[in-house]
Amino acid sequence: MIVSKKYLLLFSFILALYAFALNEYNNHLIRVENPKNEILNARSLIYNKTVYSIDNVWYVSQIKNYLQGNGFTVNPKKYNYTVRRTPVYPLFYGLHYIAFGEESSCFYIRFSQILIYILATIALFYAAFNFTNSKKVALIAAVLYGFNPSLVSFLYYTITEALSPSLVCFLLYFLSLCKKYNRKKDWILAGLFFAIGSLCRPTIFFSSVGILFFILYANRKSFRNILMSGLLFAVGAGIFFVPHTVRNYIVTKGDFILLEKYYGDPMEYGMSNIELRKWIACWMNPADYSSEVISNNMILAICCDSSKTKEMVLESEMQRLPDRALLANTKDDIRNAYAALYDFYKEKDLKISKARTDSLEKICLQKIIPLQNEFIKKAPLQYYFVTPILFVKSVIMQSNSAQLVFLDNYKGNYLKVGLKLLLYLLNIYLFVALIGCLFFIKRHVEVYEIVLLFMLINFLYIMFVIKYFEVRYLIPLFPGMYVLGAIFLMEIIHRLKQRLHF
């Protein structure tokens, strides 16, 4: 053993105490802020235990509907909702739901997620050691990952971020065993955890490119071994992918869906909201200027607040528009698009005629889509260069601490300022290390090919395809980034020692 069982148990105990203390304190502050739990937002609690998120319904509803005989879906009335989300986290939650009941499941799932997180941290330690043969690299990676408050604070949530980074740790661990021993069972288990991770958080699937290079490099001396390793990995992945894909094919009556698929807008805002989001993505991150917020404001005014007229809602939304939104589109064009969106939602709420609703949405799309086209045509510099740079900035220049309630109102509190600054600098360092490892280090090739390519492809996909970034999207990347961060740090120390010695 690299480390004695005594030290592993001590490390696990300290990490468990830290995870419980951090999350219980976070939940305490949420209760103080929202004592009667009347406000349903990211600062509310489910049964006073796990933290609510807007995506929560996607992961807790499917198992309820299934047990009630309504199919494995969020909405039994809409078949497409059965393929909107991948099944791993709903099934994971379902095990607790079946074992403990609906209310108690939210109590016990926290313990499961903390236990898995501790095991994953240990797995990352061994993965880093197997890749680099350095205890120091392994220890730094495990400590940085295990005690990161941004990651640990998700362990009280009932969403994929509570589980997906742990699954990446296990994937890296079995890949490191493949590199070290090249055993058949390790390739199968690596494929298994690749599939489980991808069916928990689909962005993990993009590591397949890195894994392909890893297989090629690890078996570079034998074409036969390349084929055998790839086949064994595929067998392991197929154990989960094949049943899921077959089920999707049957449910959709002919669609081949490996992971998940949109059929229209999942939030029932309509396709118009998706196109609205695409227009916003022309000039900024839609997560910062949410299309869903625009839609919600309109829907709330229509359904719940009779004091607000259509003109009042439109005027409010126009006042929120930043200057960059007007680089290529006139206020009149934008206002007309918003007005058409409002009319669509009003007709949809009345539920008079589906044909009428569809007709209004078509009109709405005819006004929103030209906004995108005009922007790309008239402001290409903003669209192709400035906006992607702003995306990159939003990814790198932040602290990953949005869900840490105790860091609210940090100004004036030197301890909070110090912790926030530390997390901010750590995130910047991880990307510096990523670039540093890519260009300046020639050792540990195997870890680059699986980890580095994984992260680069994810990063590029978020920046230029999805064009919608939330901090939590980075979560599955952290295990690999901490390994690379530890490698780069030790390389810097090594080179400094050489220079000082010289």
Structure report:
By secondary structure, the chain is mostly helical. The chain has 2 domains: 349 residues, no CATH class; 96 residues, no CATH class. It is 69% helix and 1% strand. It has 19 helices and 2 strands. Strands 1-2 form a two-stranded antiparallel sheet. α5 crosses α19 and α13 crosses α14. The longest helix has 31 residues. The mean pLDDT is 85.
Layout of helices and strands:
Layout: H1 5-33, E1 45-46, E2 50-51, H2 56-67, H3 88-100, H4 102-132, H5 135-146, H6 149-152, H7 164-181, H8 184-198, H9 207-218, H10 223-251, H11 271-280, H12 291-303, H13 310-320, H14 331-350, H15 354-378, H16 380-396, H17 414-440, H18 445-466, H19 478-501
Antiparallel strand pairs: 1-2
Helix pairs in contact: 1-4, 2-3, 3-4, 4-5, 4-7, 5-19, 7-8, 8-10, 9-18, 11-15, 12-14, 13-14, 14-15, 15-16, 17-19
Any descriptors?
about 500 residues, mainly alpha, 19 helices, 2 strands, about 70% helix, globular
Q: What is the tally of helical segments?
A: 19
- CA radius of gyration is 24 Å
Low-pLDDT stretches are: none
Mean pLDDT: 85
Strand order within the widest beta sheet: 1-2
Number of domains: 2
Measured between the Cα atoms of the first and last residue, the distance is 36 Å
Major sheet description: 2 strands, antiparallel
Content of β-strand: under 5%
Helix content: 55-70%
Short recap of the structure:
The protein has helices spanning 5-33, 56-67, 88-100, 102-132, 135-146, 149-152, 164-181, 184-198, 207-218, 223-251, 271-280, 291-303, 310-320, 331-350, 354-378, 380-396, 414-440, 445-466, 478-501; strands spanning 45-46, 50-51. With 502 residues, it is an all-alpha fold.
